[in-house]
Amino acid sequence: MSLLPRTAEEFSSAEYWERFFRRRGDRAFEWYGGYTDLCGVLHKYIKPRDEVLVVGCGNSELSEQLYDVGYQRLTNIDISETAIAAMSQRNAARRPGLTFLRVDATQTPFESQQFRAALDKGTLDAMASEEGGAAEGGLAKRMLVEVGRVLGVGGRYVCVSLAQEHVLKLAVEHFVGEGWAVRVHCLDGQGGTSDPESSSCALPVFVLVCTKFRQPPPAPLLELCQGEDGAAQRHTTVPALLGAVRECQAYALLRSRLRTGTDPAHSPALQLLHPPSGRPRYTLHVLDSPPGTKVPRANHFAIFIVPQGRETDWLYGSAEGRGQLARSAAFRRLVVVAMHRDQHYQDMQAVQSELSSMVMELAPPGMPTNQQVPFLSVGGDVGWREVVHRGVSTFSGEFAVEDVRGEDGQLYRRLIFLDSAGVVQSESRLGQPSGKGGSGARAEAFPSDETEKPRS
């Protein structure tokens, strides 16, 4: 019998959770992973000496495992009398310092600023699932207010969540309004649970870490980190942070889809960003061989790197051209990688090293774990490009004038409208270079807003 609720409103119902834990019995239920999945990020923000409130503990083993490694100041609360009774009985002898209380998280009996940390694994998601127009999220908001009350200055609310947009928006807007710092970690792995009586999904798990300040910062502190120890990427607004989280979720869904293959007629594309600047660094197109294609047994996966300045060539810049390239390469899956202007690439070896760990996440299903993945290219180097002018046109938006080295080894000057960056608007061959990477002829005048003609 399925233990999942029939409606979203049941997730915030005490009666539903009573039925859930009675049917579940003594078997622990782990939303969003267990201790081994989460310990890295939890230990980073919660210390063994901290007084910790575990919100919505259920019958998860997480508190027990934290207790066993030294976290012995844990107060666990849940709205389910069945869950609290079972957990108290299970731990009375072995873990006498582990406290379990039947308490509503929206109105607790604790003193203000009593705790140093509040740990929430799935409770916010459940409480924010209530429906009902203007009242939507009311329970979750009351819980967040109560969490803020019982945490001391410097305290942290650590929330493990799938970060559905309405849930994350509710929490982030609340804590930003209170003057707290907000950091979000996107963890590897998938959300849901492996339990056969539950559903699973391809979405990643996120850990929301909200820190209480004595005085609000002059501007919102909003950060996103990839993995447990990834560098923090700063965002200036709540919508920007929500957008970055959506990108993480979209990438996870793409990886999940790629594990079972792709439709050869519609090759997916994705961009890898340059963390310091936040600008696109690589564009990747993933192409699978059509069913029935004869591919050598050892040709599972390869990466083709397009030299700088060549990404507009028909073979690399069009779906038909990339399809022809993939057929010629004869691999089960080919990833075609294009480099972006305004980014520096040292040499082909450095590019390969940078891409190695990233592209392996896109490997085809069934590829042997020790399979060598070749990097392919033309010419053996990263190519050459120099942006000599950038501007904004009333008619065409942003544009760039750049010098590139063509397939014939000659230098060309191109005009690119950046909203159609894969199309060369105009091109002229330049004279002999006057120095390394330079050109002997340079246009000093560029079309102005008044003289430029709109594109046809």
Summarize the structure.
GO terms for molecular function: methyltransferase activity. The chain is α/β, with parallel strands linked by helices. It has 11 helices and 18 strands.
Provide keyphrases for this structure.
single chain, 456 residues, alpha/beta, Rossmann fold, 3 domains, nine-stranded mixed β-sheet, five-stranded mixed β-sheet, elongated, disordered C terminus, transferase, Lys/N-term_MeTrsfase_sf, Methyltransf_25, eEF1A lysine and N-terminal methyltransferase, methyltransferase activity
Q: Can you walk me through this structure?
A:
It is a single chain. By secondary structure, the chain is of the alpha/beta class. It has three domains: 8-192 and 200-259, Rossmann fold (3-Layer(aba) Sandwich), CATH 3.40.50.150; 261-371, Rossmann fold (3-Layer(aba) Sandwich); 385-429, no CATH class. The protein has helices at residues 14-24, 35-45, 62-68, 81-91, 123-127, 138-150, 165-177, 238-258, 314-317, 319-329, 348-359, and strands at 52-55, 74-78, 99-102, 115-121, 151-161, 181-186, 206-211, 222-226, 233-235, 269-274, 279-288, 301-306, 333-339, 375-376, 385-393, 397-405, 411-417, 426-429. Strands 3-2-1-4-5-7-6-8-9 form a nine-stranded mixed β-sheet, with helices on both faces. A hairpin with a 6-residue loop joins strand 8 and strand 9 (233-235). The longest helix has 21 residues, at 238-258.
